[in-house]
Amino acid sequence: MRYYRNSFLRMLAASILIALAGCSMNGNQAGAAAKNPIGISETEQGFSVAEGEDQVLFYQRKHKSMDGKYTRANYIHPLYGLDGEILTEDFPADHLHHRGVFWAWHQLWLGDKKLGDNWAAQDFFWDVYDTEILTIDSKSRGLKLGVYWKSSLLTDADGRRQPFVKETTTIRVHRAEGNMRMIDFQIELLALKDNMRLGGSEDVKGYGGFTTRIPLPDGLAFTGTNGPVEPTNLSVEAGPWLDFSGDLGGQGKTSGLAILCHSSSPGYPQRWILRRKGSAQNPVYPGRHPVPLSREKPLVLRYRLIIHRGGVNDINLDELQAEYNSSSDPIFSKE
């Protein structure tokens, strides 16, 4: 009788310890989320990201348009600098389809049928079917987004749009340290139909992919791995990172935005479409010739934005690029 009683007591004690451990783990995770400097809040239109009182970015989940035209969703605007300046533009007069920080392509092919154009925001619909707020570590948080690509050009018998690509994008926002902030993008594209292909513009420029529509003040400095870069009509080689520094906020002081391409991304180091006036900045992938999308293994594109005060010489982008290339995929935990 004593044996069974002691066994029962040992089992009861073990169960209590396991329960307490679980509570401790949940409490630690909740505590980490509560103490994290990055706050993410959901709104009717999307998600607002801030660090304390400082706005960082807004993710546009819902579709928005201008008088029913140029409908867009699934992008970042505004993106803020460290002193509150707005670093992106939406519905710019010269290219009304441009929008903040976005990732899009002109060519979306199902066999020999073209399914809209999510760069030009034509015959395309972003179905953001899932969102998760992530606590990654004590200094960063993120958004994980599930997006079905749909088009009015691919419907079922009842006229409902059918998904043809599944996008999973993770946006990771780091706390500001010193005079800079890092924001990471991991974009995964998985075909839901056989014979899906994706490509940039069909002309020799081949632009398309991860894109930033930033202000272009007079005197904006374009700098790559080997120094100053002058934009041309066609894509240029400039190394894995490109910095844009100048009076981006129109406040009479210099700030900058750098785009870093991760070495795991196809085409690394990607070529660049750069513009001094009235357009966007884009590390090009895949270019004018479409590439197939797999139904089993997603295409993965990784980029890092570095928002900074001062010019390109105020940060060490070669060192930051090396650190980024050495980073593995982060482990994300859902709140």
Please give a structural write-up.
Helices cover 13% and strands 39% of the residues. By secondary structure, it is mainly beta. β8 (107-110) and β9 (113-114) form a beta hairpin. The radius of gyration is 23 Å and the shape is globular. The model is unreliable at 1-5, 23-29 and 331-335 (pLDDT under 50).
Low-pLDDT runs of 5+ residues are 1-5, 23-29, 331-335
Name the average pLDDT.
92
What is the straight-line distance between the termini? 46 Å
Spatially, the strands of the biggest sheet line up as 10-11-12-13-23-19-18-16-17
Radius of gyration, rounded? 23 Å
Give the overall shape: globular
The main sheet comes to: 9 strands, antiparallel
Question: Summary?
Answer:
The protein has helices at 2-35, 317-326, and strands at 38-42, 46-51, 54-60, 64-66, 69-72, 75-79, 101-104, 107-110, 113-114, 125-137, 140-150, 165-174, 180-191, 196-199, 209-212, 221-224, 227-228, 241-246, 255-261, 272-273, 282-283, 291-293, 299-309. It is mainly beta and 335 residues long.
Secondary structure blueprint with pairings:
Layout: H1 2-35, E1 38-42, E2 46-51, E3 54-60, E4 64-66, E5 69-72, E6 75-79, E7 101-104, E8 107-110, E9 113-114, E10 125-137, E11 140-150, E12 165-174, E13 180-191, E14 196-199, E15 209-212, E16 221-224, E17 227-228, E18 241-246, E19 255-261, E20 272-273, E21 282-283, E22 291-293, E23 299-309, H2 317-326
Antiparallel strand pairs: 1-2, 2-3, 3-6, 4-5, 7-15, 8-9, 8-14, 10-11, 11-12, 12-13, 13-23, 14-22, 16-17, 16-18, 18-19, 19-23, 20-21
